[in-house]
Design goal:
Blueprint (H helix, E strand, L loop, with lengths): L1 H16 L15 E3 L2 E5 L4 E6 L8 E6 L4 E5 L2 E6 L10 E6 L4 E5 L1 E5 L4 E6 L6 E2 L3 E11 L5 E7 L2 E7 L9 E10 L8 E8 L12 E7 L2 E7 L7 E5 L4 E4 L2 E4 L3 E5 L13 E4 L8 E9 L2 E12 L2 H28 L3 H19 L6
Bound molecules: 2-acetamido-2-deoxy-beta-D-glucopyranose (2 copies).
One 2-acetamido-2-deoxy-beta-D-glucopyranose (NAG) binds next to loops.
Length: 370
């Protein structure tokens, strides 16, 4: 009984001294309201809100606004709260109304104080310089001094493609914090030259700020060293080339660093230079027949490519020669046959004689008199 009494007295004292937060009842009728109900303000910037103490039941009520910074300007049943420079991280101004001999009624204003990150950085953990193919690396994105960290969302992109799901933390600390987010990468040769991007967004969409204003990103280009790999489909087992024709063998491969080529030829021709992936012979002869070996190498490894070249006789001139010879021979034989066959034939005789006549006549024309 005595204890209960003391508690009541202490509560009354609290009213008068203005420590209202702990005994704030927010389920009462016609409680004060803030306009706007929520504030999003960048640290160091000005802000303001208005508390409307009551709407209908205003008689015999007194109003107050509890604050940790800023100024208040009462005006009838409303109180204006203004801050020149928001220098706190978790202000929660409370507006209250007190009805004579009754408990107080109050509302707190939700204020989100944000700070853009001081810096966003992206790097590989414990690694710098080129990476090696087929190894696991961890990409780390560090967002420095951002508030509130709960609203921070970090997304990794590989080129324009999202990799992994957006990450966040459930740390509810309101003051600026530095947070790191990671992404594991199992490198392939396709990662060479790829742009990795870390995008940090302070997501205050739900609180009325467009996300566009609150997005920062950093990127890095990954370099992956990998051994030579053939760039083209395999060539046939046997490459057949006709003597006198050009020969071109393409051993081109990709690799990082750029691979070098070592050619071994069956002939005594000089091999192509080591930076040349293509061997070219303008006109092959029989000495060029055999096995060509191309070793492609860089510091990450090497591959060997073999070409078997078969040089064939060029039959075309021979065939043409034989064909022409045969044709000439056939024509000759036919002519002979014709002459032999028609020599004793009247028609043929007549015709032939006619021809001779014609000749004769031509010759004898100037001396003919009949
Ligand atoms: C990075 O290397 C340092 C020193 O070698 C080591 O203490 C640390 O644990 C490493 N960090 C990670 C994430 O592997
Ligand atoms: C050799 O092959 C590569 C890859 O297929 C190709 O890019 C290159 O043009 C070729 N070179 C020649 C001279 O054909």
């Amino acid at each position: 009984m005595f204890f209960h009494y003391v508690v009541v007295v202490l509560s009354l004292l609290n009213f008068q001294r203005g420590f209202h937060v702990s005994s704030c009842a927010d389920n009462c009728e016609d409680k004060p309201v803030f306009i706007p109900p929520k504030l999003v303000v960048r640290h160091g910037e000005p802000t303001s809100a208005l508390c409307v103490g009551c709407k209908m039941l205003c008689q015999n009520k007194t109003f107050g606004l509890e604050k940790s910074l800023g100024t208040i300007t009462p005006n009838g049943t409303t109180i204006k709260w203004e801050v020149d420079k928001m220098m706190e991280w978790n202000p929660s101004p409370t507006c209250y109304s007190t009805f004579i001999e009754e408990n107080q009624c109050c509302s707190k204003l939700a204020v989100i104080v944000y700070q853009p990150p001081h810096k966003v950085s992206i790097s590989f953990i414990n690694h710098s310089g080129p990476m090696f193919e087929g190894h696991l690396y961890t990409l780390r994105c560090t967002v420095q001094d951002v508030a509130p960290v709960k609203n921070l969302i970090v997304t990794f992109y590989r080129g324009s493609k999202l990799v992994g799901s957006p990450q966040s933390t459930n740390n509810t600390e309101k003051t600026p914090l530095t947070e790191s987010f990671t992404l594991n990468i199992n490198t392939t040769k396709e990662d060479d030259g790829v742009l990795y991007i870390c995008e940090a967004t302070l997501d205050l969409k739900a609180d009325g700020l467009t996300p566009k204003d609150l997005m920062w990103s950093k990127s890095l280009i990954s370099t992956v060293y990998y051994g030579p790999k053939r760039e083209q489909p395999p060539h046939p087992n046997l490459i057949t080339v006709t003597a006198g024709d050009p020969l071109s063998l393409n051993c081109s491969a990709i690799g990082n660093p750029a691979p070098s080529y070592t050619w071994t030829l069956p002939s005594s021709r000089p091999p192509p230079p080591s930076n040349s992936s293509v061997l070219t012979i303008n006109s092959v002869d029989f000495g060029d027949e055999g096995q060509y070996i191309c070793v492609v190498s860089n510091m990450q490894g090497n591959i060997t490519e073999k070409f078997h070249v078969d040089v064939q006789v060029n039959y075309v001139p021979i065939i043409i020669g034989v064909a022409v010879g045969a044709a000439v021979f056939i024509i000759f034989i036919l002519s002979m046959f014709y002459i032999q066959h028609y020599r004793h034939n009247r028609m043929g005789q007549y015709n032939l004689k006619d021809v001779f006549h014609l000749r004769k006549r031509h010759v004898s024309v100037p001396t003919a008199t009949d």
